[in-house]
Write a structure and sequence with these properties.
Chain lengths: 503, 503, 503, 503
């Protein structure tokens, strides 16, 4: 979702300034707006086996992984993780994930014949989860060498990291890294005698910036950057604008397939899930106002309507507004319905959409949550005043109580509900991972001159290929154009079928 | 849901036999099919404040409540609970529940003028939860005296029991009673010098049976029994059939309003919730087969269709089958789709619907769960064979693994998904509690002769009244018939508007 | 649809009075509330081939069929129709109808082995359409002799009557009968030397009453009456109440299958069709109020919601009101939304629901129509005042214009929209015809004593059989109970699966 | 809809050749693919008052309008129409249309202050309908002078033309022009002593081409062309490509608002309407295959799913295919379901999607129709073989009968169903007309240099303005950005809110 303009707040609207980066990174873990951070937390909290979780906990000796001598069963020690003994358990998780990521498995199969990443030396910095492990092992099958660090200090699944290390990957990551650990791990990935990366796979831009800062000469050999996150993509566009981007970069965050799944389809399900898990609210008959009718708003509205809620919509853009009308939603201003609704959901990408004035007028028991990008859509700060009492009633659920006893139910303190209070389905992660793999292949194999020192969207044809790799999951059978039809339409039989700007 | 025929298994198809009841009660806690038991467990696990839970735990001294000297702040000691000190916290929970049970609050308001239960002495045996407390305090406001025990050894919210005791109620209940405690508590409710109950409110039939067994003479003064559960109602019909029912009884389980909410509307939401919480599955594009197209099946199908699943239905009854067709679902036999579906849901009330043969043919990763009454709809027993490996991957989630590596994902071991893996919304509980209160009022005030020694459904007019008390929640405005219209339709302006058999 | 109470107005609430019947019949063609009349008109206006229509018209010589000498190609002259030359064309229409009535064709196939109506002499009085012809030829295949008249003076398809006469049926009917013709035709059916009917198939009760009046002795040989219409059923109940019903009668109007199709499923489609054909209105974004949330209202609301309308509901019954809430519709009083809605639809079975006061307050361009039983739901009479101008803008569409220029768009002058302005799908007619055939078989073959001189609903098992005969149309496969399952459920493997009161 | 590539067949893929244009124009009336032609025919057949139609017919003297002396009541004779006496009736139709085109009326209101078209001399060539009259009178209110001809020889509403002539417009059009009349009328519009147009409003490109051919010098004074149709836009792009376009042109066909309404929202309703009007088919339970899941396909699928059909989808593009999956439709190849479906709908823009081989395998009674752009999606030509019998059963409905008696039901001979067999809602026409008016204003007032000699899409801001003018119809209230929010988002408070490529 959302234009990069919206992201100016991330670094204060300034150009990337490497000098004072430290300060920024210090604030990292509290920056809730970062999609990837939140995702990893909620995900790891539910994706793991119960037994695994406790195993991890019980092994909680206090020695830092950095201080331990580590070796896998083959004597390889070029990694740094929590506990190599968890490898078997991590392998089982990876195997389960493999079953739900058929697109990557299909790429591996194709790789038996050709190795499109032969010679590629990939450094990666992403969440270390079972799904990432499937990606890494796929890249290896495609011919690449990989070294990996975590893009988040909390999100590493230690048992998966162990399985990767045991399998021969140079992984540097554990759950609960300090900030110093975080940069140390990244550095260990990159800084190796006799080895230089030629591809970067990044999620958030930290790895990229570390290389910019410490090893700018490395870029001479680097063929390209694949970046997954909104934040990282934003940084790349800034670099590009400033004329400082010295290799081509692929923005996989904005590929059609990924966007539709991250927004419309995923949110259609996660709005229900997030609300149920936190509040057990019954949807039938409830009056709900959804602020914003972009893809996320469309998904939320469709789901709630289907469950028997009465849904109102607010919009600033007349075109989206007209769509809301035609889809059967009353278009209102927030103040017109704020007294009567049972649930308020923001998905605008804007700030201060639900301000204190509205919060004051909500009825007792009203649930307030945010599905949008920015954690400032609801002006939560305005609720931190002495006359209001906060009561934490469950994880991610606060009652804010007015002097007259009125309570509103605030979810995830205004942060992204779907990432804080529900989980991201593996299917969505599979689409992302496949897109990353194809983007690496494209950049690595592109003929000289196809890509300049700029930020690119995935070519439509690759986007279509990602989609096609996921159709077998649904036992879906695509029709092929006949030669005659292709000619009639002026299309290549194998696509691309849509113009690049198609959304 | 469902006919009483289906329940024969509960006590082996025999008549009620008081002599060997012990044995039956011994088996109680493992009888998963009992709707009320499961409900309470899931409910209490989520409805409580996190802090409360730990508070409860920390107060876990090992002395039995029966062995303690207990007094509330006014010196009253006619109760037996875990810890009177939790009263304040329980009161807060009750106050929150009050806000979500407006129908009972409306009854209290009306009670300022008239006291329809003045003189009523009610003994109750239900789950002791915040919602029950709101009911009990409403009965008191209506003029009744109440004594209460728990109908389940696990379901008592200790802090609520404390608040009730502090408020002057004679409550005998705590979480984690032994079977002996269970009957001791019931006996303490009933057996009091100088006090005789004249109304019974029961959930499961245990209280009723205790009185039958121990104090049969009490029935001389008892004006009626209100029974909530399928099981208890079944027992009453058996008593009636055997000519042993000696007072009128009201079956509130089968009132229209309660049924629609328990089945169609509640299941429409809980099927999604139950599947998400346990498996994080994405619904879009999934192929699902729903066995049975009664109210529960209709709710499941509607929800999944709305989320983008492709839904197949199996049915034995051609009328329901034709409804499925008209609602847009392909009607199939299970064996026609079993190899291709991603999710199998049973809601038939029947047994052995999903047998080993079908389980053998499911594809890898298929999710299997039961939304129907009986925990034998899926033949789970057939999966307990040596060649299959069971892996518990989360609470309520088992992977059953075939020798070739195929896994099926079995939820709640085939027990009711919505009660095991999701929660019952307060709105549904409110409808039940209001129905109970009105049934007590009706039986207590009915003129001599209106009710014989038989089991009755709530008069349609009362059912309509329950519904009308819940309309304000939705800010819903009912239209009134004009005199002329009422005459034209041959109806009383205040209802009943539908014949008694209307469903 | 709906209770018989509502029908009291049909004959002024009096008992059936044969003496002054004349007067009533005189008014027949203007009684718009009669479902069957309206149906036949709309149906014949669209079901016929264009060419046929003109053929019929061109043959419009002025001689009355009663004055013509008529013979079919085999020399048989025991019939009276418009023009035997149209037989070939009528046969083609019948053949097309056969393809869409597979259930009757299945009965014919079964009839090759057994003739359940062998010896039956059926007099019928229904609309003479291609669908009826399929029914009549099926009854003959089942062993019956048939003589037939039209139940409506306008609804006969002349070419179908010709085909029937050519095929040897004694048919007495043509389009545009006078009232005298009407009774003459019925009399010719019944009053034949050496032939006495033993079964009656009636639609509206006119045939039954003619026999009551003229040939009461005939009832000695008559085994039963099958009645299709609301009006006819009402008359039978009155006869029964008055102790004057002298044979058993089967009410096929109220069978579950027929009801669900006539109301919920049929109206879900016909509300859209009726509105589009008359007004070309776009549904998306329109605000609509639906008065009444019974089966008809539920169908209308579901369809309009799906098309993107914003739907409000009014109700008098709190149970239906609560259902509306849970299904996602705001429950309002009509006066709360009357100024803002674009479309008003009545489906209450009540009278004066939309009165002049509301009509005065509607906004310019508001569309008003009735889907309910009674043509007094909208107080159309109140619009016949001098200050309002009526403008007929299309067939079935009037603009009523206020002095200030405001127009409301009144459809079908408040009569049933779905019958006036759309058509009844053959599938619905097939269900009705199959039900009639099975009811005849049941009454004709019932052992002595099974049916008394009363009005009966079709046994649930027959209802289920009708449904099962229509499943193959949808390629729908019913599951069969195993012996073990049937025993567990306490059901017969072949049904009935539901209690008789199931709706 | 859809890319211009698809349109190459229209003129054989060649450049525009003025020399042999004659031949092309001769074929005009049989070119069914032309959206605007079909639309006008269906529209005029239903939009007119019944009485008007007959009036028109009765005035059918045989003198050509070109041979009559014509004057309106003010003595003005600069027009040529059928019959000036119909003016009053035409005025009433225009007034009714005004009520449904609030956006144009709003523009008129604004025009009281400013006259953005002051000095504009517009020649127009569009369908002459009541809606066009509202547009023309709006342009006049905005300051323009207008001269108008019909873009289609059949589509003129004579009474509307009369009202326009009476109102002082120079209109040259009547229903049933010959081809020679057609060009004569266009010439009369353009070729007037002492008057030169400076704006062109065209629908189909005929007017534009006439000026190119006959009066190329006129382009020196022309500020721009506004073109509405796919065909006309295609011609303009070809001119542009060939370097022959000598003024800026505005493509209003591809504005977002128009596209969404023409395709998704309009087709969602018209697929149901078109099928019902032609076949009275019941949708519930029917199996349908929809070929193509673009906007049109999405609309068709959503509507049919909502009505209880079981819908299959075929696609060639994996991205649209994945959307179909997530929306709950099975993605198949046509041959996999062709034997079992009841209805086949094409909306691909492709040719030969349903070929004879598939038609041979369809089951008896299968309905086949086309909602897509091209009338070659169904290979209707392949059905014109001797062994197949064609039977016209209604207007737009043919039965094609195989030797074994199998019939398929072919609608509109494979032409666009929604234009042939249903009507275009005034709301959609209002959006088009408003877009045309704003495009004229934009081109007329654009500062020198904003537009070059090229084809342009309407600026997003104008598109948004069209949308906003239609919101009041739905009583929809748009939210305004605060200054702070606009700054945060980097947007102007008044839009545009979306990038120009937004769809």
């Amino acid at each position: 979702y959302r234009s990069y303009k919206n992201l100016m707040w991330i670094n204060g609207g300034n150009q990337i300034q490497f000098a004072d980066q430290k300060q920024e990174f210090n604030k990292r873990p509290t920056k809730i707006g970062r999609r990837s951070l939140s995702r990893s937390i909620s995900q790891s909290s539910t994706d793991s086996y119960g037994s695994a979780a406790s195993y991890t906990d019980s092994s909680d000796d206090e020695t830092s992984p950095r201080d331990k001598q580590q070796k896998n069963s083959k004597g390889n020690g070029d990694f740094c993780i929590k506990n190599i003994k968890q490898a078997d358990f991590g392998r089982r998780e990876i195997e389960i994930a493999e079953q739900e990521m058929p697109a990557l498995m299909a790429l591996r199969k194709r790789a038996q014949g050709e190795k499109p990443l032969a010679g590629a030396k990939v450094v990666g910095c992403t969440h270390i989860t079972a799904q990432t492990a499937v990606l890494m092992e796929t890249l290896t099958a495609l011919g690449a060498q990989c070294r990996w660090a975590a893009c988040n200090i909390y999100s590493t699944q230690n048992e998966v990291a162990a399985a990767l290390a045991e399998g021969g990957f140079s992984v540097f990551a554990w759950k609960g890294e300090s900030e110093d650990d975080f940069w140390w791990c990244i550095d260990r990935c990159v800084n190796l005698e006799g080895w230089q990366p030629n591809m970067i796979l990044d999620d958030g831009g930290d790895l990229t910036h570390w290389i910019y800062k410490k090893y700018p000469n490395m870029f001479k050999k680097i063929k390209g950057i694949v970046e997954e996150s909104v934040t990282g993509v934003h940084r790349l566009y800034q670099l590009s604008k400033a004329g400082k981007l010295c290799v081509p970069a692929m923005n996989v965050n904005d590929s059609v397939t990924k966007q539709k799944f991250d927004n419309l389809y995923c949110c259609r399900e996660s709005i229900l899930d997030g609300l149920k898990r936190t509040t057990d609210v019954m949807f039938g008959g409830k009056q709900v106002v959804v602020c914003g009718y972009g893809e996320v708003g469309k998904g939320c509205c469709a789901a709630l309507k289907a469950m028997g809620s009465i849904v109102y919509v607010t919009e600033i853009d007349p075109i989206c507004a007209l769509q809301a009308c035609m889809d059967g939603f009353r278009l209102v201003k927030l103040n017109e319905v704020i007294r009567q609704v049972d649930i308020v959901i923001t998905c605008t990408g804007n700030k201060n959409v639900v301000v204190r004035e509205y919060l004051d007028r909500m009825k007792n028991g009203c649930i307030v949550c945010n599905m949008g990008h920015s954690n400032t859509e609801i002006d939560v700060a305005s609720l931190r005043t002495p006359e209001l009492t906060w009561e934490r009633v469950r994880s991610q659920v606060d009652h804010v109580i007015w002097p007259d006893g009125k309570r509103i139910v605030l979810l995830a303190e205004g942060r992204l509900l779907n990432l804080s209070c529900s989980t991201v389905p593996t299917f969505v992660l599979s689409i992302t991972a496949t897109t990353q793999a194809l983007a690496l292949i494209e950049l690595y194999n592109a003929p000289e001159g196809r890509y300049k020192q700029d930020v690119y969207l995935l070519p439509k044809k690759m986007d279509e290929y990602v989609a096609s790799l996921h159709l077998p999951t649904f036992d879906a059978h695509l029709t092929e154009l006949s030669d005659e039809q292709a000619k009639y339409l002026g299309l290549n039989k194998n696509g691309p079928f849509k113009p690049n700007y198609y959304r």
